[in-house]
Amino acid sequence: MNRNDLKGLNTHFAFGRNWASYAESIAEAEILEAEAGLQRLLGGQGLVGLRFLDIGCGSGIHSLAALRLGAADVVAVDLDPDSVATTRAVLAHHAAAGRFRVEQISVFDLQPIKLGTFDVVYSWGVLHHTGDMYGAVRTAAQMVGERGQFVFALYRRTWCCPLWKIEKRWYSRTSGTMQSLARGVYKFFFRLGLWATGRRFSRYVETYKRNRGMDFEHDVHDWMGGYPYESISPGKVDALVGGLGFRKVRVFARSFRLTGVFASGCDEYVYERV
User: Are 60 and 80 in contact (CB under 8 A)?
Assistant: First the structure.
């Protein structure tokens, strides 16, 4: 495989290993937070009787949340074999009676003729790591059925994004020792930034877990190593997805201007096929 092909697994950060580590800590509290986050995006609605596609399933926690919210059929896909194995294990442990399948499939290989279409196509913080974000959005969108919803999150474009892209490319290819040192430096300055603005690190981490249902330490590793990396503004998302035959239902976008010094952060989008 061509090392310059950013769509290939060999050019990607080891997301799967990170999520496999995180999955060891998944308990009822984390599952409930994932359910709450999914319901927030869906406007408080459940998934009873619906088909749910999870693109870039990672740890499998959101596929699990979909099953617990009543999804009749869940299909979880990921390019990374470690994520596929982790998701299978998580669903088998927590939702053995549910109807699900987990496959190692690239988003670029998804086709309605093979999997059918879905009532909800979900991809949180994934499509900007595929090596072709615009192409990934278009391919994912074609999996949405009539009146179905496309639920996704993408990094917000900031002036620091070109610098982070360089950092991520380096981090994803360096040794574990250097990665650990880099995370230490990042967390030191992150704590310093919180202190300078009158915030406590412990409270931030607690709120972070409550709002995201994720672990701060694993997410730092994910953020620093998340290569390939692209970002986009809400306006460009609307132009892209609107042009594919969707209408905007709700957007959770940052209302302030992001500098991107510590992270760009994700804006969340919900569109409906019309």
Answer: no
State how far the Cα of 6 lies from the Cα of 132, in Å rounded to an integer. Answer: 8
Residue range 98-147, pLDDT digits in tens = 999 999 999 999 999 999 999 999 999 999 999 999 999 999 999 999 99
pTM: 0.93
- CA distance linking residue 16 with residue 87, whole number of Å: 10
What are 114-117's contacts with CB under 8 Å, separation 24+? 115/53, 115/75, 115/143, 116/51, 116/145, 117/51, 117/143, 117/144, 117/145, 117/146, 117/148
- Asked whether the CA dihedral 245, 249, 255, 259 is positive or negative, the reply is negative
pLDDT (tens digit per residue) in 196-237: 989 888 888 877 665 555 678 899 999 999 999 999 999 999
CA angle 144/58/235 to nearest 5° reads 50
Report the top-level CATH class of 9-158+230-273.
alpha beta
Q: Taking the CB of residue 206, how many other CB atoms lie within 10 A of it?
A: 12
Q: Which residues lie closer than 8 Å to 257 by C-beta, 6 or more apart?
A: none
Domain edges within the chain: 9-158+230-273, 161-225
- CA–CA separation, 274 and 56 (whole Å): 25
- Rounded Cα distance between 265 and 72, Å, is 32
> Cα dihedral sign for 83, 158, 41, 106?
negative
